[in-house]
Amino acid sequence: LVEAALPAIATANAAALEELRVSLLGKNGSVTNLLKSLGGMDPDARKAAGAEINRVKGQITEALTTRRAVLDEAALAAKLAAERIDVTQPPRPDPIGALHPLSRTHEELAAIFAAMGFAIAEGPDIESDWNNFSALNIPSHHPARAMMDTFYLQAAENARPPVLRTHTSPVQIRTMLEWAKTDGLGTSPVPIRIIVPGRTFRADHDATHSPMFHQCEGLVIGEGITLGHLKGCLIDFLRAYFGIPELPVRLRSSYFPFTEPSMEVDIGWNRKTGELGGGSDWLEIGGSGMVHPNVLANCGIDPRRFQGFAFGVGLERITMLKHGIADLRLFFESDVRWLRHYGVSP
Ligand code: PHE
């Protein structure tokens, strides 16, 4: 029995080994049956046979255990080999996102104006008629309302409908109202110095107009603020933003209901080469002016004591000029190739 069993055990695979164990040591196994047969022997024969059978059982058990250990070890080695990870292999590159060019402009403006002591203010996309128009000295039948291609929302009967803000100027009103209630009261109040980058809306759509676009408003209110401050601020901002130290900036007389005097803001460029800064042509990039006394009064600020200036620039417009982007619609199409080209990786 042992002579047959031991070589079989030594070469068995896992399944065969289990079969061998059952056929030898199981309930009906050959060794088990031998042990059962001891009961029918006389005491002397039983003693001798019992010792012999137990020796056989021990030998077989040991052989089974040894073989089992060898097989387990081999299985583990195979598993480790199969699941091996090459830690020296370089990782596959993960595609990383890039900042949208408008976000980049937003961040650049925030940094430039922060250096000049401006904070960032925000307001909602949906505005009251009063904040967007009336308080800004644009009365009900003023043509500026029609010019702005306003999106009107539904309103309760007899109420003026709220609007999608047509410019960031309503945040001037929100900021001045707050200031007049608190900070603007003392004997030497801290002036308002804010920029308002944000979404704006007009019902207009072509290569240079989008129904949703972005502006950045600027507002400074304090004692003794002059047009000289406005001009210096705009020149510093535009030269810093476009990275052109000598960039020509022109303020051209214009009209806005909420500023007096009002000026359009132009920068110099060369129409033939498209180069910014050089040449003798001008590009309009925004509006500006001294805050109208009516607007200050509408916000509870005494126009005899306080003066200020405001400006508004189109964010898409200055971004297109800086980076040579031809079509405004591309800003909002989420074309990954375009975003990769004009965006900045963090
Ligand atoms: N709100 C004006 C516009 O959208 C721009 C502007 C802002 C003009 C502030 C003067 C002062 O056209």
Automatic annotation (TrEMBL):
It catalyses: tRNA(Phe) + L-phenylalanine + ATP = L-phenylalanyl-tRNA(Phe) + AMP + diphosphate + H(+). It is found in: Cytoplasm. Residues 112-346 form the Aminoacyl-transfer RNA synthetases class-II family profile domain. InterPro entries: aa-tRNA-synth_II, aa-tRNA-synth_II/BPL/LPL, Phe-tRNA-synth_IIc_asu, Phe-tRNA_ligase_II_N, Phe_tRNA_ligase_alpha1_bac, Phenylalanyl-tRNA_Synthase, tRNA-bd_arm. Its main location: cytoplasm. Binds 2 magnesium ions per tetramer. Keywords: Aminoacyl-tRNA synthetase, ATP-binding, Cytoplasm, Ligase, Magnesium, Metal-binding, Nucleotide-binding, Protein biosynthesis. Mg(2+) binds at residue 260. One of its GO terms (molecular function) is magnesium ion binding. Its EC number is 6.1.1.20. Its cofactor is Mg(2+). GO terms for cellular component: cytoplasm. Pfam families: Phe_tRNA-synt_N, tRNA-synt_2d. It is an enzyme of class 6 (ligase). GO terms for biological process: phenylalanyl-tRNA aminoacylation. NCBIfam families: pheS. Belongs to the class-II aminoacyl-tRNA synthetase family. Phe-tRNA synthetase alpha subunit type 1 subfamily. Tetramer of two alpha and two beta subunits. HAMAP family: Phe_tRNA_synth_alpha1. This is Phenylalanine--tRNA ligase alpha subunit. It comes from Acidocella aminolytica 101 = DSM 11237. The gene is pheS.
